[in-house]
Amino acid sequence: MLRLVLPALVLLAFAPASVAQSSSLGGVTRATDLVDWTARIVPGDTAGEAHYVLDVTVAEGWNLYGSQSQAGVPLTVSFSRLPEGVVPRGGLRESPTVNGMDEALGLPYAYHIESGQVTQRLRVDRRAEGRHRIRAAVRFTVCNDSVCLPPTTVETAATLAVGG
Predict the structure, then answer these.
(1) How far is 137 from 141, CA to CA, in rounded Å?
(2) How many C-beta atoms surround the C-beta of residue 147 within 10 A?
(3) Are strands 76-79 and 35-43 parallel, antiparallel or unpaired?
(4) Which helix or strand (DSSP H or E) is residue 32 part of?
(5) If DSSP codes are grouped into helix, strand and coil, which group holds residue 158?
(6) 68, exposed or middle or buried, with CB in 10 Å at 0-12, 13-18, 19+?
(7) pLDDT tens digits, residue range 80-116?
(8) Residue 148 carries which DSSP code?
(9) Is the pTM of this model over 0.85?
(10) Cα 3 to chain centroid, rounded
């Protein structure tokens, strides 16, 4: 069985940042060979809100732990040095996941197959006026039916523009 070990002021500043590395060492695949992250910032539903959106593509035959998994290492997103006037709001939202049960631990887990999306809402006020490169670290784990790769952290970035 599969065992998985695996966030009116704001204007759109659409500058995707893609993270992908491709390398193998002695035939051992790295998680960054299997998962591609793309970050973008979109306006929120209300004034003073933006969404940091991470689109993910997962290689065929591999699965990515979701943020709500109770077994293993769940997906996390953390921000470093947000500009003044920008703060995370609420928890991560993610696209629908597939649910499984870790038979060894007796715990449920949620995972993404092929693709997914994770969103972190941001509260933005006038102090954040200008253009800012928002960086986030994404920690994730991928597994197939026989092996889980070690948890991996990648840096993503997207541009936020506030005001005129």
Answers:
(1) 13
(2) 11
(3) unpaired
(4) helix 31-34
(5) strand
(6) middle
(7) 889 999 999 999 999 999 998 877 778 888 999 999 9
(8) B
(9) no
(10) 20
